[in-house]
Amino acid sequence: MSDWITFALPKGRIMQDSMELFGKIGISCPEMNEKGTRKLVFENKEQKVRVMAVRATDVPTYVEYGCADIGVVGKDTLLEQGKDLYEPLDLKFGYCRLVVAEPKALQADDDPTNWSNIRVATKYPNVTERYFASKGVQVELIKLYGSIELAPLVGLSERIVDLVSTGGTLKANNMVEVETIAEITSRLIVNRASLKTKHKRISEIIDGLEPLIGDDVKISM
Ligand SMILES: Nc1ncnc2c1ncn2[C@@H]1O[C@H](COP(=O)(O)OP(=O)(O)OP(=O)(O)O)[C@@H](O)[C@H]1O
Ligand SMILES: O=P(O)(O)OC[C@H]1O[C@H](OP(=O)(O)OP(=O)(O)O)[C@H](O)[C@@H]1O
């Protein structure tokens, strides 16, 4: 049985915060600092640590199948995918909110309590469907993969469900938030089998990280 620990980390905004946090418990991977590298797997042989750089939405899949023992991923992705993963820690970085938003022009005459049938564009169809079902609102979902704020501008949907951090993207596209669905932060996730087979190393990592996680939510820009 391998005594290496493999991490799946998202290539985007969460990567740096994750490596900074792991660095505080002595886990590092200097190979990752090579400028312009196109490598996807990095190793620190002395520490028996491997880091895979993957798409944020693919992190739970690599961890679920055991290709990675540990992952870091936004709660938005976990809510959307609903995979069977152990989620021991809220890492408190990567803060943003999952919201319902609409054009400012629509808001003036709109009352969300009167919605009965609406069309929504989103990267998060499962979360969106559950949210509106719980409110008794019928929703026609349009799945998009990015630039969600474009949808109302071109008449694809009246409303969107998307992440908001600074609010800059909504503002630049003349949109406003109307409801908050969830507050989002990054989470540590662990493969359930690894938790048993590599129990000592994984619990050392979890126990080491836990006291280092600040109460202050870090806003990502
Ligand atoms: N302003 C923000 N916009 C999007 N995600 C944010 C924001 N702030 C924090 N996050 C968190 O960062 C995570 C990853 O975002 P990132 O931009 O790296 O990936 P992505 O490009 O959205 O995903 P993918 O590469 O799978 O399409 C999100 O799932 C969310 O939890
Ligand atoms: O409130 P803000 O700070 O402006 O951030 C919110 C924006 O950031 C994310 O998009 P991302 O940059 O991931 O690009 P995407 O639209 O291609 O998903 C999100 O989907 C919003 O569009």
UniProtKB/TrEMBL annotation:
Task: List the HAMAP family.
Answer: HisG_Short
A single GO BP term for this record reads: L-histidine biosynthetic process
Q: What Pfam families does its record include? A: HisG (PF01634)
Q: Which InterPro entries match?
A: ATP_PRibTrfase_cat (IPR013820), ATP_PRibTrfase_CS (IPR018198), ATP_PRibTrfase_HisG (IPR001348), ATP_PRibTrfase_HisG_short (IPR024893)
Task: Please report which protein family the annotation says this sequence is part of.
Answer: Belongs to the ATP phosphoribosyltransferase family. Short subfamily.
The source's superkingdom equals Bacteria
- Name the Gene Ontology molecular function terms of this record: ATP binding; ATP phosphoribosyltransferase activity
Enzyme's top EC category: transferase
State the domain notes. Lacks the C-terminal regulatory region which is replaced by HisZ.
Copy the pathway line from the protein's UniProt record.
Amino-acid biosynthesis; L-histidine biosynthesis; L-histidine from 5-phospho-alpha-D-ribose 1-diphosphate: step 1/9
Q: Where in or outside the cell?
A: Cytoplasm
User: Protein name, please?
Assistant: ATP phosphoribosyltransferase
Q: Does the keyword ATP-binding apply?
A: yes
> Catalyses which reaction?
1-(5-phospho-beta-D-ribosyl)-ATP + diphosphate = 5-phospho-alpha-D-ribose 1-diphosphate + ATP
Q: How does it assemble?
A: Heteromultimer composed of HisG and HisZ subunits.
Q: Which UniProt keywords apply?
A: Amino-acid biosynthesis, ATP-binding, Cytoplasm, Glycosyltransferase, Histidine biosynthesis, Nucleotide-binding, Transferase
Q: What does this protein do?
A: Catalyzes the condensation of ATP and 5-phosphoribose 1-diphosphate to form N'-(5'-phosphoribosyl)-ATP (PR-ATP). Has a crucial role in the pathway because the rate of histidine biosynthesis seems to be controlled primarily by regulation of HisG enzymatic activity.
EC assignment: the record states: 2.4.2.17
* Protein species of origin: Malonomonas rubra DSM 5091
Q: Which CDD domains match?
A: PBP2_HisGs (cd13595)
* Gene Ontology cellular-component terms listed: cytoplasm
